[in-house]
From TrEMBL:
Residues 1-30 form the signal peptide. PANTHER family: PEPTIDYL-PROLYL CIS-TRANS ISOMERASE D (PTHR47529), PERIPLASMIC CHAPERONE PPID (PTHR47529:SF1). It is found in: Cell inner membrane. Pfam families: Rotamase_2 (PF13145), SurA_N_3 (PF13624). The lineage of its organism: Bacteria, Pseudomonadati, Pseudomonadota, Alphaproteobacteria, Sphingomonadales. It is a single-pass type II membrane protein. Its main location: membrane. Belongs to the PpiD chaperone family. Residues 272-360 form the PpiC domain. It comes from the Bacteria. Keywords: Cell inner membrane, Cell membrane, Chaperone, Isomerase, Membrane, Rotamase, Signal, Transmembrane, Transmembrane helix. This is Parvulin-like PPIase.
Length: 644
């Protein structure tokens, strides 16, 4: 129930937490702050974007980190472009991560914290991604993983080192933090807090401009917001597939092949016999004969064994050859000579003298070539299909490597070439997003968006049952859409933007009226546009907590963070308008000193206090070392990344 408090009152420590586990981020090879030592030519404003203590953060560092950050986000949104990445404020977050990285390194160096080579080696060996088939660290697997991600051993060690240093510095600062009893009581009491107020929505559509738009105004809006009209990269993919049908009758086994396989596996098709028996092993032949004679005379085998201080052991599904290997040929001969239900003649092995009762006999007659022809044919056909497809794929790969075109390969195999329309990285069709590429192409999409034009590749799909041969026919890079093609979209965005500005101004007017003593309903009625009536709210934090399985509406969350008698506005998001939130009354009920809510608050808020301690330490590191930013260089990197 206190998850609400954890979400509602937690401190802003996401960045510090990320740094504390930077080693884990490095395992995924997506760290947004990979170090670099080069310079970035062509950037105005100098070669550094920030200085932390005595350490410089170069423009090249920021460019590399931004590209890695974009790659990481593209794992969730493959169509994300660099202009969108920069426009959403991610470049600033990347720079802050670089600053924190250098602050932690500088502070650790100043006060003697270190992460030695042996510790780094140990961390690398513990990473599951670097383990071989035997479950142990494998050097070749490690090198291959680094090559795929295009990073060096030094970069991995640097990232792991920063992660270990951040753990040494930040975790002790937050470990064991506790909440004072009075504070825990106060937060537990908040659970019983009741708030009464009202929430009104001023829709942007209500205040959006009507009538014809001025073309010059639309053009100016387009020029000022070009990053909002970026079209993602799209590619046309040409492809063909082939399966075992391409092998023709080559996969059909011949009579000679069937006969050879039958001969090779003759033992598998020969007559066989397995036996189940219960046996005793005794030291002397005389003892074994005595047991056999008593059982033959009508005594129970198990009873005779117990009287001798022994236990008869059952053995199941044993062949003669296996028994001979486990005991001796003599024992096997004796056991397989006795009839079903009979006692065996005593026989000797290295363990002693064996005597047994045959419990059952399972005899399988020999199978002739005619009996197993179909079974062998099916096995050979599947083997030839798999091998034939693999061989054909290898031949095609060699042809492509030697310069053959996709069209030539398709013509050779009589394959039908197909083309997709312009396709986005997530598989949707650019011109009709409701449609997507065929399923057979989906496993190859990531590779297709890294290939050059007309450089065909081949890949197995459907578990190797089918092979895909494909190439990129055309690439259209991410770019701002021409104004002439999206004039209607620009106008719609302009109207929405202007509607938001007007709705914000209306929210300010409504708040001013409320602060002068008007009711919310009267303040809304004074508007010259007809807006929806305000919604009354009367609920406790306990009521709010019951919604934890759902997303708490932002205006409701705001209402529970405001002081009594205050009025605030809130962007409704998505250019839909502005909320105006008014808190009329706040009441608080007392709770017992031993109420279980207090213990829960103490337990759940401790980690939040610890996070705040770590956050303050992180900021103190920056302050002690000193941080300066080069705004002109940062702006130059931003322009370079978005192509301006």
């Amino acid at each position: 129930m206190f998850q609400f408090f954890r979400n509602f009152f937690k401190t802003k420590l996401g960045l510090a937490i990320s740094l504390a586990f930077l080693g884990l981020i490095a395992l995924a090879f997506a760290s947004a702050d990979v170090s670099s030592t080069g310079t970035f030519g062509g950037i105005a404003g100098g070669d550094r974007v920030a200085v932390v203590g005595d350490e410089k953060i170069g423009t090249a560092d920021l460019v590399v980190a931004a590209n890695n950050g974009l790659d990481r986000l593209r794992q969730e949104d493959p169509t994300l472009s660099m202009p969108e990445f920069v426009g959403s404020g991610q470049l600033e977050l990347v720079l802050e991560a670089l600053i924190d990285r250098n602050a932690i390194q500088g502070y650790a160096r100043k006060y003697g914290f270190r992460a030695g080579e042996n510790l780094l080696n140990s961390e690398i060996r513990m990473i599951p991604a670097f383990r071989g088939a035997d479950g142990n660290f494998d050097e070749q697997t490690y090198r291959q993983a680094l090559a795929v991600q295009r990073i060096s051993d030094a970069q991995v060690r640097s990232d792991l080192g920063v992660g270990l240093l951040s753990q040494q510095l930040l975790i002790p600062a937050s470990f064991g933090a506790s909440v004072p009893n009075k504070l825990a009581y106060r937060y537990a009491q908040l659970f019983k807090e009741r708030r009464q107020g009202s929430i009104a929505l001023l829709p942007a559509a209500t205040y959006a401009p009507s009538g014809a738009a001025d073309p010059e105004v639309l053009r100016a809006y387009y020029n000022a917001n070009r990053e909002a009209f970026v079209r993602p990269e799209r590619r046309v993919i040409r492809y063909a597939t082939f399966d075992s049908d391409a092998l023709g009758d080559r996969i059909e086994p011949t009579e000679a092949e069937i006969a050879a396989r039958y001969k090779r596996d003759a033992e598998q098709y020969a007559a066989s016999e397995t036996r189940n028996f219960t046996q005793l092993i005794v030291p002397t032949e005389a003892a074994a004969k005595s047991i056999r004679d008593r059982v033959a005379g009508g005594a129970s085998f198990e009873q005779v064994a117990r009287e001798a201080g022994l236990r008869a052991s059952p053995v199941v599904d044993v062949t003669r050859s296996a028994l001979a290997a486990q005991s001796s040929p003599a024992v096997a001969a004796a056991y397989f000579a006795a009839a079903d239900g009979a006692m065996t003649t005593p026989a000797r092995s290295s363990l002693g003298w064996h005597v047994a009762r045959i419990d059952s006999v399972d005899a399988t007659p020999a199978r002739s070539l005619a009996d197993v022809r179909g079974e062998i044919s099916d096995t050979l056909r599947e083997e030839k299909r798999v091998r034939g497809l693999a061989d054909l794929a290898t031949e095609i790969e060699e042809q492509l490597r030697d310069g053959a075109t996709l069209a030539e390969v398709a013509d050779d195999l009589d394959l039908q070439l197909s083309n997709t329309g312009p396709t986005l990285a997530d598989g949707r069709m650019f011109e009709n997003p409701e449609q997507s590429v065929p399923d057979v192409l989906r496993p190859a999409l990531a590779t297709a968006f890294q290939m050059e034009v007309e450089e065909p590749e081949i890949a197995p799909v459907d578990g190797g049952q089918t092979y895909l041969v494909y190439e990129v026919g055309d690439i259209t890079g991410a770019a701002v859409a021409p104004y002439q093609e999206i004039e209607q979209l620009v106008e719609a965005r302009w109207r929405a933007t202007e509607g938001m500005k007007a709705a914000q101004a209306a929210a300010d007017r409504v708040m001013a009226r409320v602060r002068k003593g008007n009711t919310m309903q009267a303040a809304l009625a004074a508007e010259d546009r007809r807006v929806p009536p305000a919604q009354s709210v009367d609920m406790t934090r306990e009521d709010l907590a019951r919604q934890r399985e759902q997303r708490v509406p932002p205006p409701l969350a705001l209402l529970f963070s405001m002081a009594e008698g205050t009025t605030k506005k809130l962007d409704a998001g998505g250019n839909t308008g502005f909320f105006v939130v008014k808190v009329n009354d706040i009441t608080m009920d007392d709770i017992a000193k031993d109420d279980p809510l207090i213990e829960q608050a103490t337990r759940q808020m401790g980690p939040l206090i610890g996070e705040e301690y770590a956050e303050q330490l992180r900021l103190a590191m920056r302050e002690e070392l000193g941080v300066s930013r080069n705004s002109s260089a940062i702006d130059a990197v931003r322009k370079q990344l978005i192509g301006n």
